[in-house]
Every structure is written in C-alpha cells, then in structure tokens.
Amino acid sequence: MTVQSVFPALEQLLPRVQKPVQYVGGELNAVVKPWDDAAVRWCLMYPDAYEVGIPNQGVQILYEVLNERADTLCERTYAVWPDLEKLMRENGVPQFTVDAHRPVGAFDALGVSFATELGYTNMLTAIDLAGVPLHAVDRDETHPLVIAGGHAAFNPEAISTFIDGAVLGDGEQAVLAITDIIADFKNQGSPGGRDELLMRLAKSGVMYVPAFYDVEYLEDGRIRRVSPNRPGVPWRVAKHTVMDLDEWPFPKAPLVPIAESVHERMSVEIFRGCTRGCRFCQAGMITRPVRERSMTTIADMVANGLEKTGYEEIGLLSLSSADHSEIAEIAKGLADRYEDTQTSLSLPSTRVDAFNIDLANELSRNGRRSGLTFAPEGGSERIRKVINKMVTEEDLIRTVTAAYASGWRQVKLYFMCGLPTEEDEDVLQIARLAHEVIKAGREASGRKDIRCTVSIGGFVPKPHTPFQWAAQLDHETTDSRLYKLRDAIRQDREFGKSIGVRYHDGKPGVVEGLLSRGDRRVGKVIEQVWRDGQRFDGWSEHFSYDRWMAAAEIAFADEPVDVNWYTIRERDLSEVLAWDHLDSGLDKEWLWDDWQDALSEVEVDDCRWTPCFDCGVCDHMGTEIQVGPTNAVMLPMPTIPSRVVVNSGT
Amino acid sequence: MARDRDPGREIIPAVQKLRIQHAKRDRLRFTSHRDFQRAFERALKRAGVPMAYSAGFSPHPKISYANAAPTGVASEAEYVEIGVVQVVDPDKLLTVLDEVLPPGLDILAVVEARTPDFVARLEASHWRIELPGTSVATLEQALETFMASDEVLVDRLTKSGIRTFDARTAVIRANVELGSDCAILQVVVRHGVPAVRPDDVLAALKKVADFAQEIPPRVTRLAQGPLLEDGWSVGDPFTLDREATQA
Q1: Which domain holds residue A292?
Q2: CATH number for the domain formed by residue range(s) B122-225
Q3: Alpha-carbon gap, residue A93 to A84, rounded angstroms
Q4: Is pTM, for the whole model, over 0.90?
C-alpha cells in the first residue's frame, strides 16, 4: 500500500513556525526511493533538533548502508520543536520523514540513535506523533519496530518499556542483519506476527529485546536478577564490532543540509575505539579495540567527500585523533594536497601533547586558525591519576607554550568536576593551572592578548566503565566547587582578565545520571515527565530540573528507590547492575580492579604500546587491535579541469 | 583569535563578473537568505567555479546578493553577482551550477556583467499572492478600498521594535484573478526604504477591508527589474548586459 506524503498538510503549518527550512529536507545527497519497490523500510531518527541531528555520523552512515541495498529504503526524521508539535497535534499531521515526508508510522522499523540519554523524551514525542503506541507491549503488526542504538543503548533499561529492541555497538552490519530477518519474515507472510519477528531477532543475537527478559528486585530496591523469559533467548546480548573500516568507507556522499547545522564541515572517521583507558570515558570503554582506517582510504574519502559536498572544512574524527599511527603523514599529505585551496582541516579530540601543536600547525596551513582545545579533564595531578588521564603539568605547560609560540592566541581547556575522590582543592588547582598557562604563554609569545578559556562540566558516572560503581557528586556540592573556582580565577589580579570560565550548573547532570545508570523503574519517570511537557532535555531553555524531580516523586512513590539512590549512591561488587546482561566485552572483574586502582591512584597503560592487560574485549568478542603504519604514500591530487572555465584543459 | 595568515598568500583579482538569475521554488521557498548563501557557495565549489576571494585574515568569495525574497516566499527572479579569476562561459556556468544545486534552487539565466549599477536597476517587483479560502469578490473589494487610499499605515516588527510605514504609495499596480482553489492578487511594488513586502500589502488590505485569512498565503516573486515605459511593467534587468555583449 502506497503512503501519501504529508507535505501538503505540513506546508500549511510551516509559515507559522520558527526556521521552517529544517522540516523541508532537500539536502544534497539525500535519497528518495519508490515506496512500493522496497521490501523493508527503515526510518532513522536522531532525537534532537534537525540542526544537531543532521551532521550525526551514525545516522548518515546507516542511511547510506541501508539505501545501498536494492530491496530497502531508508529515510530520516528529527525532533520537531514544540511550536510545530502543537500545530501538528491540532491539525492531525503525523511525525514525518524529511526525505519524502512519509508518515513515520508506516515504516517497518524506526531506528533511534542515542548519543546521550537526553534524547529520551524526544523519542516519546516522535513515537506519539507517529501514532504508534507509547508502550511496546501495545503495538501490533501495523506498527514499526522501535529500535535504539548509539552509546546510550549499552544500557537502554530506562527506555525498555518504549522500545522493541536495542542494538549495541557498530550498526553497519547489524542493520543489514536486521533487514534480512525482517525481509524474510515479510516474504513468508509475517507468520506469528510481531511476537515471532521479535523472537527471530532476539534469538539471532543481533538485538536485545527487553520484553523477553524479566527483572526481579530485592526488598531494598537492588536488582536480584535479570533472566530471559523465553527459551532460545541469549542470557547476555553482545555488542557488534565492525572490523576493517576500509571495507566500510561510509558516508560516501555526506548529507549537506540547506539549513545551518552545528557542524558546518565534512567529517571523516579516521579510527574507531580508544584504549587510552580514561576511566570516566564510556565511549573509550565500549568501542574497543582500536581499529584504524588506512591513510589511503582516509585520503580517498576526503577527496570524494569534498567533491560531493562543497564543504571547506574537513574534520578528522575519532576519540583521540592524534593517536592514529600515521597521523603526521595524513596531516602533511592532506595539507599538501589542498595547499592552494580554501580547504581547512581540523582535528577534534586531541591530547595534551606538544606533538599535536605541530599537527595543528600543519593542518591549519591552508585555512583559518581558530583556537586550540585540550582536555586535561582533571585539575590536579592526583585526580588525573584517579581518572587515568596521564598528563603532567609540565606536559600541559609545554604544549600550550608551543601553541602560543606558534601564533595561536586562544587555548581552551576542558575539565570535569565531581570526579571520584575529588576535593575542593582538586578543582581549585584549575585556577592555578590557568594562571601558569597564561604566564608561560605571555613569555613564549611576547604578547598580552593571549587567552585561555577553562570549560568545566559535571562528571556523570556511566555504565560499562570502572566508575559505574561510583557515587555521583550531588549538584549542591558541584555548584559550590564551581563557584569557588570561578571566584579564585576572578581574584587572580595578574592574569584573571585573560582567563575565561565556562561552566554549567550541576542539576542537568543529576537527570543524566538517573537515566544513564537507570533501570526499568526509571521508565515511569521518563513517561511522567514527558506527559508533564518535558522536551529537548539537552537545551537549557527547555530543561526543567524541577519538572524531572516532581515526576520522579510521583513515579517512585511506591518504590524503595529515589533519585539519590540512582545517582549519589556508591555500589559494591556484589550488586547486580541493570546492564549486566548487556555485554560490552569488558570483563566485570577487570572493571572492578580498575576501579580499585583508581581509588589507589594507580595508572594503567595503553594496550597499543604495552602488553594486553586483559580488559576482556578482544578475547571475548573475537576482535583484535588494527593499527598501522601502512607506510603508504599520499600522492598529490590530480587537477580536475573546470567544466565552466573558457578553454579549460586545452 | 586567529593566527595571522600567511602574508605571502597571493590575492588574485577578479577578471570577470557574472550575473545570475535563480529561482527559489516549492519546498525550498522556506530557505532563508543565509541558508541560500551557504548552499550557493558550496554549489560554486562543487561546480568548480574559479572564485575570486577577498583579501584579509578570513577570505570570502566575491559574491553580492541583491534584494532577497523573504523566507517562505517563492521566487522566479533572485539575482546574484560573482567575481571569478578565470574567464567563465556563462552558458556552461548555467548548466553546471544548476546541476549541482538541489531541485528547487534553479539557475534560470547567466550573463557576463558589462554594465554598472545593477542593483539600482532592480526598481520594482511583481508578486503573485495566492490566497486560499478567500473569494475574488472579497479581495477585489479590499483592493479597491486600498487603491483608493492615499496612504495605508502598517506595522512591522523589526529587530529595533515596531516600525510603522505606508504600504500604499509603493504599490504601482494590482489586480485580482481567480485561481483553482484561491483568489490571486497580482501586485507590482516599487522598491524603496523600507521595502514594502507582500505581507505588508496583505496587512494593509486586512486593515482597510477586514477580511480573515486562515490559511497562509502562497507568495511568488515573478519578476524583479526596471520599470518599463508604461510605468508598471517589470522588465528584464539583464537586457542591458545582453545588448552590451552582442555589441
């Protein structure tokens, strides 16, 4: 059955909302396929505003991977702002895709990518606007499967009532496997209905289906056990790992929106995974092992992407980009290739390392030089040992001095507040560090107009990390530490005016903490707060701490737990964690030992350069570290004759 | 913020200027001017147009945009001028640029700039305003009252507050037609300061005749250019450049 575009109805509403262009689609390289020709139809969602969601690499990659299949079509949807949501409800316009403005409820699967937990309420809006029942248990064959992915899917328990499944880890092969299963099932005439389809998906191990697991609780509120309630369903569901990124060079044709987005650049992922072992970092823990993309493939992706998009900036993405085994060759090779163009290169997520200044200089040779950003994360030497961020103060001073000396005038430093074992003094060290940075920078550059911006976020303990057992710092103490730091910097008469401070208050972190280490009971809080009007939790102007706390009060009324129980309570080794049945490959005992090492301020090395320390991932998942060097050579770009210039190429 | 640019960088002057007429159609009429600028600059890159760049720490391609239609308003007559460092064939530019732009942002004509004062030549715009749910009779009556007035003051919310100005004097000619599901107002408006836009004309009509418009109007700029001898027809602003090229 062909579905109709909702655009004629939507078009009437667009003149009445803010930034209507975000709802019209029309991105360069977007794909619209005939509805009737597709055996399986996917809708992918990034549950935030279009301007945030459109650059998301996960969605862009899976969008292409799925659309490359002849029997599959894939479109995208994003969160609509409350002004349009209101009009859509009044006028009966359902949640739509931006590609062909088809109703989301008509698709076979709705894949939602969660980079953070703050998109949960927006997912509920989308499901509801799509006309899909909020609770998975109330859905039937006519409704799409709602599937969560992204980092937050490593503990989807808080949203387990609302989703049909969750996929852990890399999505490229997983979405294809799911598509195969859905296609077979539909070809066979959907025997056994939705339940049978979910059973096939669960049994294959490709997807965690929460409905097939029961959670029992102890009287004190802790979990007694989590177990499958159907035969054939695995006890633990494992993450997916794509090996050989050269075989998956996506996105090949990045989407370029007409509307402005938060990342006005093309991104090329240069490796996946990170084994630096920062203990707070969920991304580094759940994406192991390190898998590099080769220099040759990176160069091809850059050249192809620039041609297909017209972007002037390329971001070389990864969790710690300067760690690529051939990063110097890549930086020099690309800078040479694009020497006479307006193209600039950027390297987000670099470590505090003087080598990176050379890299940054090389990368900015052709383009504009903005500020440099480093993330020491912890203010004191002691706390950096706790979090295993192996940076000494001398490293930091040497690095920023080199930056100022080579002409950069703005350096940004990222820190966290509320780390395990932290005292006021650890945070106050940041003021002293910033003072030393400016002092050294003025000497090195001979100028007084250099600046240093200190940016501090509250730490939220995450599942599948050594800090998963840690007590989160309450927001009152977080705020008081941040104020003390701000005052200390203000009182720096010598350099205070050269130091900027950016911080957020601790309240949003409490909600993030509740959601990220939440169990199934937290789902009631999400539903309550959403019914009370909560949307767009990642936006300070829409986030309401009071509304969340009021919702938790109602949702937990008959439970032995409360918000503090989930956030500021330290767990012990014997406790069953809500995500224990979800397998990131990390050995729980290794994580516990690493947690104990953190408390004793013992550091752990990177397994790329030292022997394996048995985190468990490679053994358990059958994966291995993939790093260069390949010793390949990046050749200069052949000049393509312009098609518009008179006598060009003759 | 930025490090000083390499002072050795050579600034290549523009050797040719080209004037481009483009449309903004269908769903892409919701494109704002800033959105269009970004999309257009990227399209120039993909098309391999040898753009001239400004000097300075943060070089920008040499592009001037004239009188952009408001967000949400479609147009068949938007104008852009670009400077290039190698001579470009206007016909090839038209084909290639149109190919790399999304459907809805369509290139309609390209001429080599041979004459000065192009923007001054854009004296007036011809707008077609479709009003679904409004009857021809109602609209005609409103228009009659409006045209009979010497002055109709309207308010517009600007960044600096509410601004009140006359929407009547700029309207040179207007008539009403019957469309398939709507009444259509055809109106020629002289450019001035502040520019009287289609929504200002509608606001003025509503003020003098009090008709309700529930469904948002569909507005298209059909032409923009010099006023011809009859005093109300809008001509093609590229005519002078075409004549100069042929001469």
Answers
A1: 265-369+605-636
A2: 3.30.70
A3: 10
A4: yes
